[in-house]
């Protein structure tokens, strides 16, 4: 096991591509049995970090241990104990669902009898038993994603790396995948997840880091981050175009006020009380909504609302 009981232990980890620093000296510890998340806008350094952890991209400098081993010296030994779910499915579309599992299992040197038994178990886990002898190409996106995750488990990995696991899936498929990932964690598999979906991070991650410009800008559980960087509730006020009230008319009503092109956000402990106070000052929005603060509020506060390509 790695330092401090961590399956992944990084200190001052740096990744450069020429003059460009993709990862700028981060510290990370992923504990056995937890689901750990990397959040951040495009170009934040999430994928570069995952590739170093997955032993497919060498670090430029700093310390990194995965499963207690050095990726530069022990890459093959580490990879044999990892499962990897890439952002884009790379299944063999001309093979059947079952054959995809069999072929991948043989890459790990597993016996044919073991792979056959394990494939049956994983087909049941992924709810693909009835499609086992179908070719991959006609499957839905959700089925392909479940097969990719099942394939990553063929070697009984201790650590599973998932890069944007539910991108492009409909809500039903996403929730089914969440259930499967939760079951894996219950069975002792450690998960590292990158995702752009804040609700996904709240559902799945015990702890996470928010990355921006190659650095970690916040770390904690979803509830800890919401408590630290946001408020209990958010009041959203919408107005007709170009007729929002002067911001000083709302001074002192909330802990923080954010003006967006289509609405005002007032961050407070009691959104209904703030709404009543705003009405008392003559503020009349077209619509109002009081909601709980979310990880998305934290993410946007820490990384900004400017689109990064």
UniProtKB/TrEMBL annotation:
Annotated compartments: Cell membrane
UniProt xrefs under InterPro entries: AAA+_ATPase, ABC_transporter-like_ATP-bd, ABC_transporter-like_CS, ABC_transporter_ATP-binding, P-loop_NTPase
Main location: membrane
Domain ABC transporter stretches: 8-238
A single MF term (Gene Ontology): ATP hydrolysis activity
Top-level lineage group: Bacteria
Membrane topology, record value: Peripheral membrane protein
GO cellular component: plasma membrane
Biological process terms in GO annotation: response to antibiotic
Annotated keywords: Antibiotic resistance, ATP-binding, Cell membrane, Membrane, Nucleotide-binding, Translocase, Transport
Keyword RNA-binding: no
One protein family per Pfam: ABC_tran
Family under the similarity heading: Belongs to the ABC transporter superfamily.
Record's protein name: ABC transporter
Organism from which the protein derives: Actinophytocola xinjiangensis
Biological classification of the source: Bacteria, Bacillati, Actinomycetota, Actinomycetes, Pseudonocardiales
